[in-house]
């Protein structure tokens, strides 16, 4: 009887594995939805639509990009965390997914419990620009003025808790200055405000060279200068080596999505990132270094970033809540 039970148990296990493999092989059988927590025209929206256009060809299904802007990306994250865990609804994430747990203690979702990493798309630099009318020609000019006039300069962002907001909070801390935050509904609105002179400073993703005679780029993050803006020095060159923030992008899903489905999406995304059109748009035009990592590697990256921003928020809570 013991041998029979073992044989039956082995047969049942084999059947379960076969069923799981078959389920994974069948995925996807319908269109996928990529949910973006920020408005159309933002850097994360651009990344989502670029990846979606090629990923849909890879998987043989259409992909819908749905913008659910609000609360620094938290509305979208909460929506996806509660969606059916079948792999058909994915969250496009950036740094804000790691910032939120520290900034909002009353979140309706737990980033590390209710969501799981699926694929790491890539990471790119941030660039600090000022409105030309301010007359700053170097980062030293900006810092010197800001130290002499605390709170006089203002800066724009895509919204409270978004990457441009927290990137500037960190910049203020590293340089010892204090600027006034003016949040907008999205990155495109914040950039328009900088161009129009409504804000003095904006730290945002590179998004190509984005040349304009109305703004002056003063510094860029990264170990070396970007080929898209070769005349712009790095923060490290200018004496701030600790300020080396990157803007990353990736995909997450509800935590209960089966591992085989996650693995299949991950493999499809990684293959898609090798597409010449993706490389041209994201790397050649926007300076994003593309990644091809496992879900586990991306999860470890997010966990480390959550810990980093927890410390940053704790140190700067008073400035953030002004």
From TrEMBL:
Signal peptide: 1-25
InterPro entries given in the database record: BUG, Bug_dom1
Alphabetical UniProt keywords: Signal
Tagged with keyword Signal: yes
Coiled-coil boundaries: none
Gene3D superfamilies, alphabetized: Bordetella uptake gene, domain 1, Periplasmic binding protein-like II
Family: Belongs to the UPF0065 (bug) family.
Protein name: ABC transporter substrate-binding protein
Organism: Bordetella genomosp. 10
Lineage: Bacteria, Pseudomonadati, Pseudomonadota, Betaproteobacteria, Burkholderiales
């Amino acid at each position: 009887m013991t041998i029979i039970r073992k044989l039956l148990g082995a047969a049942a296990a084999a059947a379960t594995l076969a069923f799981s493999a078959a389920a994974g092989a069948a995925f996807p059988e319908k269109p996928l939805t990529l949910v973006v927590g920020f408005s159309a025209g933002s850097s994360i929206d651009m990344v989502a639509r670029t990846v979606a256009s090629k990923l849909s060809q890879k998987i043989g299904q259409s992909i819908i990009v749905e913008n659910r802007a609000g609360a620094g990306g938290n509305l979208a994250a909460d929506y996806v965390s509660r969606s059916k865990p079948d792999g058909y609804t994915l969250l496009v994430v950036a740094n804000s997914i790691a910032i939120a747990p520290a900034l909002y203690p009353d979140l309706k979702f737990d980033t590390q419990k209710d969501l799981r990493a699926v694929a790491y798309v890539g990471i790119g630099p941030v660039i600090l620009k000022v409105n030309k009318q301010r007359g700053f020609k170097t980062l030293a000019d900006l810092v010197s003025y800001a130290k002499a006039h605390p709170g006089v300069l203002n800066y724009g962002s895509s919204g409270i808790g978004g990457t441009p907001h927290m990137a500037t909070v960190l910049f203020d801390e590293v340089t010892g200055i204090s600027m006034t935050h003016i949040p907008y509904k999205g990155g495109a609105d914040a950039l328009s405000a900088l161009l129009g002179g409504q804000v003095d400073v904006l730290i945002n993703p590179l998004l190509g060279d984005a040349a304009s005679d109305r703004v002056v780029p003063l510094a860029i993050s990264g170990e070396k200068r970007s080929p898209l803006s070769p005349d712009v020095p790095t923060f490290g060159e200018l004496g701030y080596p600790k300020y080396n923030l990157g803007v990353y992008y990736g995909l997450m899903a509800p935590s209960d999505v089966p591992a085989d489905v996650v693995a299949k999406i991950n493999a499809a995304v990684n293959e898609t990132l090798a597409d010449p059109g993706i490389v041209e748009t994201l790397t050649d035009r926007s300076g994003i270094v593309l990644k091809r990592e496992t879900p586990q590697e991306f999860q470890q990256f997010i966990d480390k970033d959550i810990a980093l921003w927890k410390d940053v928020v704790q140190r700067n809570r008073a400035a953030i809540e002004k």
